[in-house]
Amino acid sequence: MTAIYGRTATIETAIRHVMPNGMVALLQRNPSSPIVTVRGEVRVGAVHESAEQNGLAVFTGAALIRGTQSRTFQQIVAETEALGASVNAGGGLHSSGFAGRALAEDLGLILEILAEMIQRPTFPAHEVERLRNQFLMGLRESEQETRTQASRAARAMLFPPKHPYSRLSSGTIQTVQALRREDMIAFHALYHPRVMTIAIVGDIDPPQVLAALERVFGGWEPLHTPPEQTLPPVPPLAGVQRRDLALPGKVQSDLLYAVHGLSRTNPDFYAANVANMILGRLGMGGRLGDNVRERQGLAYSCGSSLDADLGAGPWAALAGINPANVERAIAAILHEISEFCTQGPTPEELSDAHDYMTGSLALGLETNDGIAGTLLGIERYGLGLDYIARYPGIIRSIDAEQIIAVARKYLSTENYVVVSAGPSAR
To answer: Is 117:80 a contact under the CB 8 Å cutoff?
Structure first.
């Protein structure tokens, strides 16, 4: 805890500045580091694409670096590499992100290049096709990945077809093949400074950086309003839904149990996060790893994940198993979840989770990149710059009764989806 409180200054003393066009800048001076990290996001992502254009947000974000009105892709690479610097960008589910890294004296150039990428990309046809080929290669590989296919199937079962969570934001071979340059231009037009945040951390002079940001981003004032992020309703699960996927040539199966989780801003989030840590994250996979993997020997790996963002994603248990153990592993996972909902954590499990979660946050503030990422998260979820100081108290206030209550509320052993993907179907 002392370690965290000793680093609260790296967040609480950050400068939050809202530019006239609505863009938010978060600046933290770290004089001990000559390297400056830039991280940012525009809250436009796969939630704004149609099912027919699945992958458009990710594809568009990845193409931002492929050429601007002032620089070709090759020029961007040459200029940054000559300085030992870097820039990159990419799309995601709720936002499209970008980043840069450079010595403090080169920050101005990095901001200039990033501003061009965000505001004035050209999506050159030949670069788009090269990028498409790279995407398609990755998607073909993912078609043979048992865990990816299990996740894809589980999402389709958890969420209705029109819901963006019903699919992976990477898209499919069919949808990415069909994307046109005109689609990317139209999607990029949704970008807006009022839903953009940029975090800059390093040996900087904040007034100079704010002046530089005003110079390269201040003139960006789109005529349209930023798009909303409204997710369609999700009907509750009724009973058990199961799917078994056959992937020829595989020797291992991946098993996935999933239910509807909760959003990051849900009041239950912190209790659910601690519960998930105990159930399937601590050590070699928490309680699931200890019992299903270590004691029963039913899995090569076993754990859980909680996908809590601006919307409620899946709360899942995952296991890599011998195909012969599918039925036994399902039964073992359901048993552990049932026991967890009934008995809750032991005092030792709860203490370990508290210590790990507060300690890992402190480790995340050791680097400029970690500080910048934390600042972005604080802004995204409206947590306030005093969040780091409050966080240990929030986590340590979560007790066994709260964990039992949240587990019973969300982790059903009667209404859930289960998917296996491996060498043969059931």
So the answer is: no
Instruction: Assess contact for 261 and 315: CB atoms under 8 A.
Output: yes
Burial class for 173, CB neighbours closer than 10 Å (0-12, 13-18, 19+): middle
For residue 250 the two structure tokens come to 């595989």
> What CATH number has the domain spanning 240-422?
3.30.830.10
Cα atoms in the 13 Å half-sphere on the side-chain side of 413: 15
Helix ranges, 120-179 (H): 125-142, 146-158, 173-178
d(CA 326, CA 250): 14
Task: Enter the DSSP assignment of 190.
Answer: T
Residue among 283, 267, 292, 275 nearest 350 (CA):
275
Helical spans, DSSP H, in 245-346: 269-280, 286-288, 326-343
pLDDT tens string 28-76: 999 998 999 999 999 999 999 999 999 999 999 999 999 999 999 999 9
- Residue 356 is which amino acid? Y
Instruction: At 10, list the tokens.
Output: 């790296």
Q: How much is the pTM?
A: 0.94
Q: Going by DSSP bridges, is the β-strand pair 24-29/196-202 parallel, antiparallel, or unpaired?
A: parallel
The fold of 12-217 is Cytochrome Bc1 Complex; Chain A, domain 1 (3.30.830)
CB 303 within 8 A of CB 258: no
Q: Is-same-fold flag (12-217; 240-422)?
A: yes
- Write down the mean pLDDT value for the chain: 95
Give the residue from 210, 208, 263, 244 showing the smallest Cα distance to 20. Answer: 210
Q: Please provide the size of the chain in residues.
A: 426
The answer to whether 189 and 227 are in contact (CB under 8 A) is no
Phi-psi region of 22 (alpha: psi -120 to 50; beta: other; left: phi over 0): left
What residues contact residue 362 under an 8 Å CB cut-off, 6+ apart? Answer: 3, 4, 7
Q: What is the pLDDT of residues 147-179, one digit of tens each?
A: 999 999 999 999 999 999 999 999 999 999 999
Per residue in 76-89, pLDDT (tens digit) is: 999 999 999 999 99
Q: What residue spans define the domains of the chain? A: 12-217, 240-422
Task: Confirm if 152 and 256 have CB atoms less than 8 A apart.
Answer: no
Q: Residue 32 corresponds to which tokens in the numbers above?
A: 């001990």
Contact status, residue 54 vs residue 71, Cβ threshold 8 Å = no
If 0-12 CB within 10 Å is exposed, 13-18 middle and 19+ buried, where does residue 324 land? exposed
